[in-house]
Amino acid sequence: MKASTILLTNLVSDTLAECVDDSGLTRAEIARRLGTSSAKLTDILKNRRRLTAEMAERIGRLFGTTATYWLAMQTDQDLRKMRAEKGEAIRKQVVPLGR
Q: For position 8, what pLDDT does the model report?
């Protein structure tokens, strides 16, 4: 698949925004409950900041999911971005064993 055809989404920020909106709480209240600043929450929601394991744990606890759920989304997002940017070069450079 060509890099240009890979759908790049903001999986983490879109899902988190939906959770925040569905909660009926303000972003400031969500940030307070997470034990973080509104600025950090906003950065995650605007896809300017990656999730850390700690923040994934906090978000998972708050919304009744798991850190693994959030980190899997972050990893998927990171892989899609990397493949779009560098996948072709890696495929040309790295030859699988046995070939």
A: 58
